[in-house]
Write a structure and sequence with these properties.
mainly alpha, Ribonuclease iii, N-terminal Endonuclease Domain, Chain A, Double Stranded RNA Binding Domain, three-stranded antiparallel β-sheet, 12 helices, 3 strands, 59% helix, globular
Length: 221
């Protein structure tokens, strides 16, 4: 816990709150679901407030899309991995065996629960400071005009400008239980002989991830 507090640059007055935030429902009846609910609301307000103050030229719809990218499961799990939250989560035996500590949904939920715990422990202003610290690397490199457009849209606009055919998306794998499936999708650009895979908890998110990887390949070339 001390290691995680060091990464957060925050010491909890009530350490039990942090312990609860890191306890998955598979571990026991006392778990992080209530804190996750509270943290989700606080996190959305913190990011919305940051975008409102930092980018005065963004209109409502643009701020909404940028916030969605920052607080969706992909964005949350990315921050959680940077903090190595997975190594601190308390999981039931079944989740441990199936790699739950690395699952994006579990990491995202734990991060939201930590935000909820921060809010209870020391109020909104301190929680805001810690959250913006968590997100500092992402926020420093953010380009709202690009982020406001999703990866599939950016790829489509690029291809249309170059008069290339649009990409083909193929689902290559679906795994997991019905309530928590995992998709792997190929994004193929035949004319450019470029392809990449992406994964996500829905076909849509996997397609976005695959398009994002293709954009990276195009940029590298």
């Amino acid at each position: 816990m001390k290691d995680l507090e060091h990464k957060l640059n925050y010491q909890f007055k009530n350490p039990d709150l942090l312990l609860e935030a890191l306890t998955h429902r598979s571990y026991g009846a006392t778990n992080n679901e209530r804190l996750e609910y509270l943290g989700d609301a606080a996190l959305n307000l913190i990011i919305a407030n940051y975008l409102f103050r930092t980018f005065p030229d963004l209109v409502e719809g643009e701020m909404t899309r940028v916030r969605a990218v920052l607080v969706n499961q992909d964005g949350l799990s990315r921050v959680a991995r940077n903090l190595d939250i997975g190594s601190h989560i308390k999981l039931g035996g079944g989740e441990v065996k199936t790699g739950g500590a690395e699952r994006a949904s579990i990491l995202a939920d734990a991060l939201e629960a930590i935000v909820g715990a921060l809010y209870i422990d020391s109020g909104f202003e301190n929680a805001e400071t810690v959250v913006l610290g968590m997100y500092s690397e992402i926020l420093q490199g953010i380009d709202p005009q690009d982020v406001a457009k999703d990866s599939k849209t950016l790829l489509q606009e690029y291809l249309q400008a170059k008069k290339f055919k649009l990409p083909i998306y193929n689902v290559v794998e679906v795994s997991g239980e019905a309530h928590e499936q995992h998709f792997v999708v190929d994004c193929v650009l035949g004319e450019l002989k470029v392809s990449a895979q992406g994964s996500g908890v829905s076909r849509k998110s996997a397609e976005q991830a695959a398009a994002r990887e293709v954009l990276k390949l195009i940029e590298t070339r």
